[in-house]
Design goal:
The chain has 363 residues and is an alpha+beta fold. It is built from 8 helices and 16 strands. The two termini are 30 Å apart.
Length: 363
């Protein structure tokens, strides 16, 4: 392996982007043919807002062969809040952060350390543009940790699909048109929470990605495209809301024809705006009804399970009531490990808390 200075990280051209997608098609197509896969990637990319840097494909080449793609990855810019000490004062600011995904090395270039070089160059570039960036590791916790992306708690609970066709009571199902005001309300609530709280002792920063409507739309663009191809239907139900209007969830479906075990309905965001208007049992019951609505959608779309990332204590209580036994909170050790690289002045040893580490931030 030669020095990093012999390598170039740059954005892919249109032709290189298509070439890259054709190369990693077999890894991530999930049963699509190559043309369907490329069309899906274009469709998804068109649903990324350019407001926060958009979606970019990065490639690593060498100075010796600048047109030969050695490996590639993508970044998506996302809105976030950060709370830390800036200019001697604790502040809350809205920032742009980047989430890295689709790290891919063609088979003939593997075991040469190219991905390490690419990520090192990308980390240096992103450090100049944002205070933190993230990725979701599917190779355990250590590989990316050694490169500066520290693993954060990555847990979830799982519920089976509903076994009966009786619609769950007490909720209203949500469609796309319902989501913009709810997402705005959610972001406003998070903003108030961040402004009303302070850093705990020994904590250098708190960060939270924002569950905006555009973020949800990116997830839904994937399921809508795949749903139409695989089942001939486009999913229209995007979540459910409780009668009080203070609790709702937004979900999406993972269609995969190659591995049926991967067909899952994931709760992208579980919103629980607390208050004193209801007793705890009533709040748990509202969450329970939302989870039951998700289970029913999983049954209708033949999903294998319902997943909730980073469930709150109240969500765990609700799931336990549904199952009639204590639900298991699973700590992921090998896949979808939430990993964050801190680029702030506190340094990479900073103690950073990642709040609301739910599926909506994934890419």
């Amino acid at each position: 392996m030669t020095r990093d200075s012999h390598y170039i990280l740059r954005e892919a051209t249109t032709a290189e982007l298509e070439q890259t997608r054709r190369r990693h098609f077999s890894s991530w197509a999930g049963g699509l043919n190559v043309e369907q896969y490329i069309s899906r990637e274009i469709h998804i990319a068109n649903n990324v807002s350019n407001e926060h840097g958009g979606m970019k494909c990065w490639i690593l080449t060498s100075t010796a062969e600048p047109c030969r793609v050695l490996c590639s990855c993508e970044t998506i810019g996302k809105p976030a809040f950060v709370r830390n000490v800036k200019d001697g004062k604790e502040q809350v600011r809205e920032v742009t952060s980047y989430v890295i995904g689709s790290v891919f090395t063609p088979e003939e270039h593997r075991k040469n350390g190219y991905a390490t070089v690419m990520l090192d160059l990308l980390a240096k570039k992103l450090a100049k543009e944002c205070e933190f960036d993230a990725l979701y590791s599917d190779v355990g916790k250590n590989f990316y940790a050694h490169k500066g992306w520290k693993p954060h708690p990555s847990n979830h609970i799982s519920l089976p699909p509903a076994i009966s066709d009786v619609p769950p009571p007490r909720v209203r199902l949500l469609e796309d048109r319902d989501l913009p005001p709810l997402c705005n309300k959610d972001v406003d609530s998070i903003k108030s929470w961040y402004h009303e709280t302070s850093l705990q002792p020994n904590v250098d920063a708190c960060i939270v990605y924002l569950p905006t409507y555009q973020v949800m739309k990116w997830h839904h663009s994937r399921e809508e495209y795949l749903g139409k191809i695989i089942s001939g239907k486009t999913p229209t139900v995007k979540g459910a809301i409780s009668p009080s209007g203070k609790r709702w969830c937004i979900w999406n479906r993972n269609f995969n024809t190659l591995d049926p075990s991967l067909k899952k309905l994931s709760i992208l965001r579980m919103v629980d705006i607390d208050g004193n208007d209801m007793v705890e049992e009533e709040k748990v019951n509202e969450i329970m009804a939302l989870l039951e609505a998700a289970q029913e959608q999983a049954r209708l779309w033949k999903m294998k399970e319902v997943l909730v990332w980073s469930p709150s204590e109240r969500v765990v209580k609700a799931a336990t009531k549904i199952l009639g036994k204590q639900v298991e909170v699973v700590e992921r050790e090998t896949d979808s490990i939430c990993s964050l690289r801190w680029n702030g002045e506190e340094g990479q040893e900073a103690n950073v808390i990642w709040d609301l580490n739910e599926k909506f931030a994934w890419c």
